[in-house]
Specification:
Elements (H helix, E strand, L loop, with lengths): L3 E4 L2 E4 L1 H22 L5 E4 L5 H5 L4 E3 L27 E2 L2 E7 L2 E5 L3 E4 L4 E6 L3 E4 L5 E5 L3 E2 L8 E5 L2
Antiparallel strand pairs: 1-2, 3-13, 4-13, 5-12, 6-7, 6-11, 7-8, 8-9, 9-10
Length: 161
């Protein structure tokens, strides 16, 4: 059976050969898409359409909701593992105002002093305080504050199968 026939300058393909050729082209396109989107691949999109609906393959899940991606850096504990969740959206900033036995105390780098100027206790580096005597020391924090960097939202999809 002839697969290709030329007649009067025109090329004709028999139906079986044409269908096989078309299937091979479609498979090559799908294989190329799969190679570009392997399991573990992240797609960043501005629509909420699941990539499986567009690509026609794979299982995709939303990934990293409410988080900003950061590159792995094995030299830093905070960033040494892939998909490690770190940080917090809001936290308290300590404003350097303390109360010692119900007296107002304001901190500086070297010591906390009462309003009368007497030394109550000294600051122990950045790790805490060394109390002098049996005074009760309370740290006052500001209200929760946002620490969100300038951002733009998008959908991040991860292929899991």
């Amino acid at each position: 059976m002839e697969k290709i026939h030329v007649e009067n300058g025109k090329t004709k393909l028999n139906d079986d050969f044409f269908n096989q050729l078309q299937n091979n082209i479609e498979k090559a396109i799908e294989d190329s898409k799969k190679a570009e989107n392997p399991v573990g691949h992240i797609r960043i999109e501005t629509t909420d359409t699941n990539p499986a609906d567009i690509l026609g393959f794979g299982t995709w899940v939303l990934w990293g909701q409410g988080r900003v991606p950061v590159g792995v850096d094995t030299t830093q504990t905070e960033f040494n593992t892939v998909e490690k969740e770190i940080g917090e959206k809001e936290h308290k900033h300590y404003n350097g105002v303390y109360s010692v036995d119900n007296k107002l105390a304001i901190s500086n780098k070297n010591s906390l002093n009462s309003v009368l100027g007497e030394q109550i206790f000294s600051v122990n580096g950045t790790t805490g305080f060394t109390s002098i005597g049996s005074t009760n020391v309370y740290k006052y924090a500001s209200e929760s504050e946002s620490s969100i960097q300038p951002s733009i939202t998008c959908y991040m999809w991860k292929r899991i199968a």
